[in-house]
Amino acid sequence: MSRLYVLDVPENISVANVAGQSDGVQVDKLGPYFVIEHNGPIVIDRRATGCRHAVWYSCVAGLADGRIVQWDKDALRVDPR
After folding, report:
1. pLDDT tens track for 44-68
2. CATH fold group of domain 2-80
3. How far is 40 from 58, CA to CA, in rounded Å?
4. Which of 18, 19, 33, 46 is the most exposed place for a label (fewest CB within 10 A)?
5. What are the residue ranges spanned by the domains of the chain?
6. Rounded CA gap, 11 and 39, in Å?
């Protein structure tokens, strides 16, 4: 199961919300972070989040058991290892 950590600040709430709308994706809190987990790929559409580019490219705080395979102006995709 891959995990994506996103700092829980107002600018990143939409990232967690959009991620949580995908089937099988679980969003929890751990300390000051959202933990976004899934057995398969985690895919978050940037336009759906409404994030500006500066927020988008600074939203990732950490990863566990996954790797970023796409992080561009369109989407963030984390594949499990």
Report:
1. 999 999 999 999 999 999 999 999 9
2. Phenol Hydroxylase P2 Protein (3.90.56)
3. 23
4. 33
5. 2-80
6. 26
